[in-house]
């Protein structure tokens, strides 16, 4: 009798995938498909899909990996686990936080001494208001060059619109404006140096924080904004070409926001 029951058990067909298993595979597959779409959008740089780039990378990873997380935790799907691994790896590689994290502890590393080496300390400051920049406070930072954006009018610095450049020492030339932007270009010779450095401070058209990413109006807005940004950058290159290298051994320090 025991042998008959065992043979009957072995003769039973293997269980097929249930609807629950299919649902887990589907959720994991959706997450992986979303990853392919996001990678394609960022890789091709399509202006039509520019609205998708308004989302931070970490938000894309959290939102689009959620179906894979459900597929793995609830339905035990291996495809869901694969989706989580893919999104996690993509977020680590592409995020802006990885380079600073990789440089942890490097502040304790001292460069080998060199008699010809000279360090230039550059500070970027965004005011976001119409008041004049706090000259007394930022002077305590002892920065050689300070790029300021979103500031009000002041007579202490080279300024065009809301963009300004402050230098602590040396000689600074006249400010050259950039067409259709509030940016400016100046040539600066540091103290006790013959090397001329071209300082560029450019502020592109600011973008709005929009949450209607499903709306065609939002798609059109980001499509137009990217066209404007590209045009403003072209104005920058045209201005650099017009100004030319008026001084020898000219290097470029560029701050772009």
Describe the structure.
There is one protein chain. This protein is of the alpha+beta class and 257 residues long. 42% of the residues lie in helices and 16% in strands. It has 8 helices and 9 strands. Strands 5, 6, 7, 8 and 9 form a 5-stranded mixed β-sheet that branches. A 4-stranded mixed β-sheet has the order 1-2-4-3, with no helix packed on it. α8 links the parallel β8 and β9. α2 runs antiparallel to α4. The protein is elongated, with a radius of gyration of 28 Å. The termini are far apart. The relative contact order is 0.10. About 2% of the residues have low confidence.
Notable traits:
257 residues, 4-stranded mixed sheet, 16% strand, single chain, 5-stranded mixed sheet
Q: What is the topological layout?
A:
Blueprint: H1 2-11, H2 19-44, H3 57-64, H4 66-73, H5 78-94, H6 98-102, E1 122-126, H7 135-139, E2 145-149, E3 158-160, E4 163-167, E5 171-172, E6 176-177, E7 184-189, E8 197-202, H8 216-243, E9 251-256
Parallel strand pairs: 1-2, 8-9
Antiparallel strand pairs: 2-4, 3-4, 5-7, 6-7, 7-8
């Amino acid at each position: 009798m025991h042998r008959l029951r065992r043979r009957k058990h072995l003769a039973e067909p293997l269980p097929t995938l249930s609807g629950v298993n299919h649902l887990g595979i589907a959720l994991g597959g959706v997450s992986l498909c979303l990853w392919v779409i996001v990678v394609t959008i960022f890789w091709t740089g399509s202006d039509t899909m520019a609205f998708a780039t308004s989302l931070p990378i970490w938000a894309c990873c959290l939102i689009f990996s959620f179906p894979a997380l459900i597929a793995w935790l609830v339905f035990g799907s291996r495809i869901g686990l694969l989706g989580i691994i893919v999104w996690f790896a993509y977020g680590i590689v592409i995020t802006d936080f990885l380079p600073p994290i990789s440089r942890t502890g490097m502040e304790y590393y001292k460069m080998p001494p060199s008699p010809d080496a000279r360090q230039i300390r550059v500070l970027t400051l965004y005011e976001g208001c119409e008041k004049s920049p706090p000259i007394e406070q930022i002077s305590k930072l002892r920065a050689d060059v300070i790029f300021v954006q979103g500031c009000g009018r002041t007579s202490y610095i080279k300024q065009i619109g809301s963009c300004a450049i402050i230098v602590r020492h040396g000689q600074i030339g006249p400010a050259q404006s950039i067409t259709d932007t509030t940016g400016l270009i100046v040539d600066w010779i540091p103290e006790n140096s013959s090397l001329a450095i071209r300082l560029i401070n450019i502020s592109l058209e600011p973008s709005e924080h929009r949450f209607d990413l499903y709306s065609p109006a939002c798609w059109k807005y980001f499509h137009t904004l990217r066209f404007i940004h590209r045009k403003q950058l072209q104005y920058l290159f045209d201005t650099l070409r017009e100004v030319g290298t008026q001084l020898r051994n000219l290097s470029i320090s560029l701050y772009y926001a």
